[in-house]
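Record pair follows.
FIRST:
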Amino acid sequence: VGTVSDTDWSIDSNQYNSTKYGYAGYGSGPPPGKKKHKNRKELKDLAPPECQILHGGHRHTKLYWLFRLVMTLGCGLGVLIGMVYSYNIGIRLLEAKDGRFSFGVYGTGLLVYLSIQSIFASLENRRFKKQTPPRNYEETATKTIAIQISAYQEDPHYFRECLMAVMNLKYPRDKFKVICCIDGNEADSVYMAQIFNDVVKGCGGDPAFFRWDYNFHELPEGLTDSDNGVSTLNECIEMNQFVCLMQKWGGKREVMYTAFKVLKEKADYVQVCDSDTLLDSRAMLELAWILDSQPNTGAVGGDVQIWNSGDSFVSFLSSLRYWMAFNIERACQSYFGCVSCISGPIGLYRMSLINKIVDLWSDQRFLGDVCTFGDDRHLTNRILQMGYATKYTSRSFCKTETPPTYLRWMSQQIRWTKSYYREWLFNSMWWHKHHLWMACEAIFSGAFPFFIMYTMIKITWSGELWVLIHLLIIIQLVGLLKGLFASVVRRDPVMIFTSLYSSLYVTSLLPSKLFAILTIGMKSWGTSGRKNILTNYNPLIPVTTWVLTISGGLIYSAIVNDYMKEGEITYLGIGIGCYAGYWVLMAVLWKLRLQKHHTTKKMIVNNSIIGFRSSSSKSDRSQISLAIRDGVVDEDGAGREAKAILANLRDIENGRHLPNPYASKTSNDGPPVLDEAVLRLSASSSSHGPISPSVSSVYSYDNLIEDIRRNEESAGGKSDRSIEVIKL
């Protein structure tokens, strides 16, 4: 699938045109108008009764709110003053005789904070397991849900996988609507509409398309809604279940705003999703159950996992960091009902609340300029402003892409940091409406990076090398403790590698936070579309400055360090050896043992279902891919077996049958097994399509099943799970 011209757009016949209104269609009307956003005078903020609803659903007197405000400010200032005081005074609770090792009040405070966070995260995770939807909820759910997909120059493989996952969500089909909003209406974005058409039709849906000259902030002057396309768009959303909208480029927040504006009362809930996101089949079901069962919860988010963790060391560490961020940090926030950000890839909101804040959210300004990025965090803050709880559940999850290259990852982190500190200021006005943990955590996490930054500069220029080595070892040990705890919770030793994330934090994230604050007024998506990836070299500015600053301090300390001090050489040698040895060991384990077991973009592209020819069985194929992704089949040792199955199917098609495709062939890591590669290759082989009961040839189904059973069992493997997927 590549870029196509307007003349090649094969879905023009499905373009939605209303006979009721005067909109002539794409390219036939006047040019877009000048971009207009409402100013503060035009935007009416939420009235006090609308933004003073606590989790219990009670409204309180002004005296009560004053008390909570004073109490919250007092606790927040207490945390900040305590951090500054304990850091500066440097009280040491434990200290070695020679003064080389110590443990002080500040370290104790950090340990207490991490312990509290871990305890309440564990309690919330236990609560998740008990809060399960009823068994028949999939058939009895009554709330209507609209899922909004934001797309911009997306990688075709990612986009198709995203849509296939959406079409296979386990929720009553007549209760949800799909609105795919493409940010761009020109020829270079048409390929996404083509993919939408193929996937929806292949899954038995009836897609509708609306290619719009405008967006809501760039409507032409002097035209009514009937003539500028707004009325036609509203009718299109009203009359169709699966809609693909292409509109004038305006940024992610603009396409989300369009969907929110036209939905209004057309749905009870709205779910947001990014175009590179693969939703679990139960994702919508689990999120909807939270809002159904908790009327004072305004929004709920799910667990975001990484599906290209094998692309690079950066993407691998990011995948571990994502798990910590969602299953520890946000799980803890969820326990107190104050999740600070419902992430863009997977989040569900009450449409009644969105209708109240949609203009305030869309036309948000900071330092006089309209905001673009940080749409998910500000939307969450608006829900918190009204006093509603925001929750998180790990039972609903998705997989998404993370930037595999260092520069793209840094661009993303800088963008996120800008929105974090901007929204930190906005969020601080509503701390008193929620649990005290919200204020305490916000102050701690907002100030902590600058304590570390100051410490790094101070120590590197201190003239004592051992103090620096000691700091690095302590940072590594804290990361190792967090990794060990995560390994126990997740029951996966790979989380020990979380300790290596400290290197990215110290070398890259710390300077990027300061750079983000200094450039907080600069606006952009922060990353380019994935179809044509552009490189942004701006992140090199803070990193280079930071490296020069730290390097200068290291050189200075190396020159003036007192090497004649008793035990100095020994301590330096042991410290550097342990630190470097730990890194070498972990890097070797990653490269030789772990990387090959993690998914890469190449695997996703090679196993993509884009190659399927017929559309009649695409739903069956997607069911297979989802079942595999949910862990039905192991992934080890798939390559040779996949090729053998594919070769066997081709010979079946030609009326021949080769000997046992598994004969004398066993995996290096154990008996041969089937995985996603086997099924996708077999599904895309020639004209036979997927292995399914619908195949007319008896041999290509029953005999193949029997072959697989006999061959795997003769090799010592178990065939039940493989055959289960084949039958599916």
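SECOND:
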Amino acid sequence: VGALRPRLASNTLTEVTASSLPRSASTRPTAERSSSGDARRGGSACRVTLKSTRLASTLHIHAAMRTPNRRGLSFVLAALHLLSLTLCTSYPTEKALVQTISERVATINIQAQLSKLREGTAQSSEEWSQTEEVGWIRVPLNHFVEDPKQAQTGTRLRTLKGTVPIDLRFPGDPQYTEENTLLVRYFVNRQYLDSSEESRPFHKQPAFLALGGENARHNAGEWPLVYSLAAKYHALVVGIEHRFFGESVPPETNGGSLESSKLLFLDPEQAIADVVHLLAKLNSGADGKQGADNHRGYVWIAFGCSYAGSLAAWAQARFPELIRGAIATSAPTYAKLEFPELDQHVQAAFRKEKGAFAPGGNKRAAGRCAPALQAALATYDELIDSSESSATRLKKMWMLPHPDEFNNDDFRYFLADLAAMSVQNGNRHRLCNCLEAEGMLRRSVLKNTNESRSSDILVKGLHSCFSKWQYMGTNEGAMIYRLMCLFDRRCTKDTSKPADGMARAWWWMQCSHVGYFQIAPEKTKTYPFPLRSSRLNADYFKNFCMQVFGGEHELGKSGELSHVVGSLQNQIQGNTKDSALEHSAQNSSANGPTSEPLRILYTYFLEDPWIETGVQGSVREGVLVKRSSCFSSVPGGEEELPAVKGHCGHCADFHEQQEYDPTALNMARNEIDDLVGQWLREAAHVRR
């Protein structure tokens, strides 16, 4: 043992060294460990562990000599024996040993799951990705020509340079180079196509386009609903990754892939122009697939969830002759700098935790979820303010990267957003049940009858609940979430290709075009339990933008958001065509502008906080807006959902249909199905 430890300590692989483990368990002097009663108890436990693992590994090694397929297990047992040998010399008690091993295993699991997310092999996409093709299309970094009138009038006028895919003539065209173009990734799924004439109900080929939003893409359809409809209508499925997200980033230069000078070309209009180039390429057969799937022409239906839903609707409104219709679920439709309504909506959602929805079935606990969450987050707020050492200790508990330097207010934003996401993703039942199980809903805790004990229950309970969730497809949900750069300004400053595929680009969108700064609302009688710290105000978000991007983002330059989103939404809710994205004869259609009507369906669910940014007011003909509630308006008539599986939040209708889904959710899916079928029949000359 004495010979083993120095070699391990000096090894660069520090997974099992004392120096890589929590200080509370690794820095006690050897003399102190050996002289305590705890050490004697720990030593006894270690002796049993060492004997067991040594015996098991020895037996398996002998067995492996005769049975080769057991060799893998023998190596594992031998490694476990060595690990036990090392840890037992460094840890005084069974509790310290078990805690340390648990923490290391959790960290390894987190890293493995994050790796899967980064590589696009998360469980939710594996079955689709295996049958899909990956392609790249070269597009201009800047699709637009600025109108010279802009300098005189101050009006923002931009005209598309063209829609003929430039990668059809690259690198032959001298005006396009590696430096002023961008490769955008897309996915194609042809498994639902049927080449037999009799099996097709349409003369033209249905084709579904799933637009990418503020994250990396891993497959064509992205959502189960898209695939199920594709199977029904024998449709081609294509998914495009949003520029500057995932792998669709400019090449590395001295300033990095995501330096601000390049991010100037990240906005919704540029992304829609990427879509136009891709569809032009596929419609022409230039992707090399000129077989049965496109010889009669495509009928494109666009799909999108959240911000991607907005893009789908805007793209259809701007290019109705190219995109037949659009399904947009949970789509925010207008830019909004400050967004306190999100927190208020989350509070209101928790008020439904009553009757059949009471946490853990305990009706006495009804109505206590929001107060408990508010108390827990307020406790964190106070501890963070109490001292830097206290703040650092909490960050280490959450396993945040570089906890000594992680900004305190970024930590507050991280915690508050986890709570909001529980409602957004339809998980408030799960959260409330967990709060109940952790003892956070007890009256004695909420009334703070024992300050020290209440504080301990609230802090540890919140951490436990978020760590246990099956969040983002993993069992260490919040731990995965914390590894993203989204809440870490130090990480977001990095201009190189992002590991998480989204943070810096999305912050640019927020700071320049969409806003949605989730500030703390004022405490009122209607909303008595604000979840966010008062420090999460407009100044916090503006300072974040300035520290990450300097003054180069739109908010830093003009003091307000750009007019891109407003211009796009005017196409859907206004009475006249906005000139911000001209699509004249040379820009969009060889036959000139068309009179194609709008065909857009927006769907929202009342539990989703982002409904607050949804379509408001009148819309143009052909635009449908459906808002669904999973709760009856009759007192006591709420439709009962299982505590863990019920989902009626953000983009709920795009998820896979389950037997326990509420009626309103299934009705929304049926309406999407009916409308898609109608659009295809109208466009594709139905066989009778």
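COMMENT: The chain has 26 helices and twelve strands.
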